[in-house]
Amino acid sequence: MTTIRDRVIGIIGDALNLSAEDRAILASDEAGGAIAGWDSAAHVELILALEDTFDFEIEVEAIARLNHVSKIVDYLDARGVSADAPVAV
Hints:
The protein has 5 helices and no strands. The chain is mainly alpha-helical. It has one domain: ACP-like (Non-ribosomal Peptide Synthetase Peptidyl Carrier Protein, Chain A, Orthogonal Bundle). Helix 1 (4-15) packs across helix 3 (40-54) and helix 1 crosses helix 5 (69-78).
């Protein structure tokens, strides 16, 4: 069963074009936001990808805080977004 965390890691990996090694670091939660390529431009791409995938708008005030997998997952959980949310086409 796919979890919201798995989906977020996949979205981050795709949005940032991460290698398998960097995806593994994200999955292990060791990165602490220190993923090569996760700069401000990539962060905007990531936010847009999350909004598109889960079909909702992230509050402007929250965007800067969503800089780590666990923070993104917590944010989505708090808003009732589930791993079963349909994938936007």
